[in-house]
Amino acid sequence: MQRVVEVGPRYASETLILRGEFRGKLSPYDIPEQARSEYDVPGRRFRVWFEYLTPDEPRKSVRLMASGGGAIVVQLGKHSNKLYSVEITGVNHDQIPRVRLEIVEAIKDIASKLPQHDPRNYMPATNLGLAKAVLERESDLFAVSAS
Amino acid sequence: MLYWRDMGRPQWEDFVSGFLLVGLTLFSATSDSLREAQNQILLFLYENRVWIYASLAFAVVAFRFIGMLRARPKRERIRAFLECLHEHYFSSGPGQLDPRFRVTLFTPQRSWVGRRVLKVYARSTRVHPTSKVRWSIPRSCRGKFDGIAGAAFATGTEIEMDDLPGYHSAAEEEKALYRNATYLDETKVRKLNRLSRAFRALAVKDLKGRHVAVLMIESEEPSGLRDRFAGGSLYWEARHLQALFA
User: Fold this and answer.
1) Cα dihedral B148, B154, B160, B165 in deg (nearest 10)
2) In a domain, A147, yes or no
3) What's the count of helices (H) and strands (E) in chain A, helices before strands?
4) Nearest Cα residue to B160 out of A17, A8, A119
5) Between B176 and B11, where is the model more confident?
6) Could you read off the pLDDT of A107-132 as tens digits, one per residue?
């Protein structure tokens, strides 16, 4: 069964961008409307994804190693670099609450690789920070039942 | 004309035509019959050059004219939407638009020298409905923006700015503060008809996440926008503009 969490205005403080002299905030196109999660029993796969106003954006995948021998596949927007989904494989149902930390670490890792001085990265860096805050605070996303 | 379509990365058709061109060039270098045919074509082109130039010039003018005609309904639709926004937020009576505010949509274009610039596409007011000022969109901005519209487009963000000093009555220090906050230089300031004191700017994105325009809302009052947009983002406007550009 899917878990759904509304994001939108509840995370307004996480959308501010304050870099040097630049003052802005994430546009409505880059603030997820919802975050969803799902666990796939046969595939032993846990997936969490974010829904935006830009659903047709082409994606690119970043593959990282998970601690349990599985893989973490992060999907980012090709044009925007914003976070669309994170999937972690090789996870048993009872391990789901613990994968949260791994997913958050993966997002932090990707955010740290964005060149900070480039203003075009202000938006994706803030979007990744927002996604991290959502995953850290919304325990419901990690309380999924097996489907 | 849908200028923003020209702004994207090379498409697969560009690569196919590139490969065909390279292939034909290589083939012609090794084939006598093809070289002969090539010479015939070049001779024909040379003999009829006047007609060819004239037809090309006519085609360019015709395509631009058709493009203008096709773009007009869309531009009118967007202008009507901007006027609707203006009336919704800043009405000074039934059907009257408060002149202290204005709502503008900028779209990216390529200038004649190939530089990417933002230009006024439509504006809610009849006072200065167009502008000759262009806002550049550098490929690599590195913290240097051209105006608030340029900053919003380059970063793909929403910018809120309130309580700016009145430029013409301000001291030199405050003028510098204004220019710094709005990413303007003195040359640009001189070109502008109006120096607003509060701004909201939003980079409009299509369903594929590409930047297609900038929505700019301006006020001559320093806190003219704060109350009307208190705490909220331009979500409703973002959704509607995306639909209009689809």
Assistant:
1) -20
2) no
3) 2, 8
4) A17
5) B176
6) 999 999 888 778 888 899 999 999 99
Does A107 fall in a domain? yes
In the stretch 84-113 of chain A, residues with CB closer than 8 A to chain B read none
- The total domain count for chain A is 1
Which residue of B157, B202, B204, B211 is the best one to mutate when testing the A interface, meaning the one whose CB has the most A CBs within 10 A? B157
pTM for the complete prediction? Answer: 0.79
Residue A111 lies in a domain: yes
Evaluate whether residue A84 is within a structural domain.
Answer: yes
Q: Which of A20, A28, A82 sits opposite B234 (nearest CB)?
A: A28
CA distance B134 to B244: 23
Cα–Cα distances (Å) from B24 to B14, B15, B17, B38, in that order, read: 15, 14, 10, 11
User: Given B157, B233, B238, which is nearest A122 (Cβ)?
Assistant: B157
Question: What single-letter DSSP state applies at residue A144?
Answer: P
Size of interface A-B (CB pairs under 8 A): 104
Query: Mind giving me the DSSP string for chain B?
Result: --GGGGGS---HHHHHHHHHHHHHHHHHHH-HHHHHHHHHHHHHHHHTHHHHHHHHHHHHHHHHHHHHHHHHHHHHHHHHHHHHHHHHHHBSSTT-B-TTEEEEEEEEEE-TTS-EEEEEEEES-SSS-S----EE--SS-TT--SHHHHHHHHHT-EEEE--PPPTTTS-HHHHHHHHHHTT--HHHHHH-S---SEEEEEEEE-TT--EEEEEEEEESSTTTTTTTTTT--SHHHHHHHHHHH-
The complex's ipTM works out to 0.87
Q: Do B158 and A27 touch (CB under 8 A)?
A: yes
Domain that holds residue A101: 3-142
Tens of pLDDT, residues B47-105: 888 888 999 999 999 988 888 887 778 888 899 999 999 998 888 777 788 888 999 99
Helix (H) or strand (E) run with residue A129 in it: helix A122-137
Sequence-separated (6 or more) residues with CB below 8 Å from residue A132: A104, A107, A108, A111
B12 Cβ contact list (under 8 Å, min separation 6): none
In order of start, what are the domains of chain B with their CATH numbers?
Answer: 3-47 (no CATH), 72-245 (3.30.450.40)
The helix (run of H) or strand (run of E) holding residue A110 is: helix A96-113
